[in-house]
Amino acid sequence: MRYRLQTGSFAWLIHRLTGISLTLYIFLHLYVLSSLRDPAHYEALMKTMRTPLVRLLDAGLLGLVIGHGFNGFRLTLIDMGISTKLQKPLFWVAFVVGALLFILGALPITGVIQ
Amino acid sequence: MKGVAGWVLQRMTGLLLIAGLIVHFTVMHFSGERQISHQFVLSRISSPYWKAFDLAFLFSVIYHGFNGLWGIVLEYVGAPRWLKFSQILLLVSAGLLALTGVYIVTLR
Fold first, then answer.
1. Which of A21, A61, B22, B64 could form a disulfide with B13 if both were Cys (CB 3.0 to 4.6 A apart)?
2. Cα B5 from chain centroid?
3. How many angstroms separate the CA of residue A96 from the nearest CA in chain B?
């Protein structure tokens, strides 16, 4: 199958890829949290969470969440009957607001600002 | 899930997840390191309100994620056998995650 990339199909593809990644991430998330049963194990994992690499991955995760969430909200608006002429502008509004939010969130997550 | 109900539920859990994520991120990630200490997490989780929030959030995300995956499977998988296999795999995974989540939230 081949896809022609335009704004809409690009949004569709990204929605899919971020959605799959986020669903798989639930496994990792719950694995980490199940260590709560053992305080020492939990604190050790949290120590790993503060390493630069994991912080970077964490910022990436925020990116996935924002991308999927904003595009999903846009899709919901369209489903609710907002004019289809607004699809493309809505994409760009979502993109800009999402990007700003991503930068704001990624700064404390990566530890660039405390 | 099939038809209109599945579509509406996917949208509703999606909106719920956006609201939940705002709370989740603010509390867990942007309120300082103390919030993720073992003691703090356990005391937070012992509140029935947080238990309810966490479980609603968890079940929404599991439904939303696995219903989404199922939609993708339906598009790409044709053979009935593989369809059945994917369905069972998704259901078992979702069930395992739900059980793990309940186990974590009811921890004391």
1. B64
2. 18
3. 18
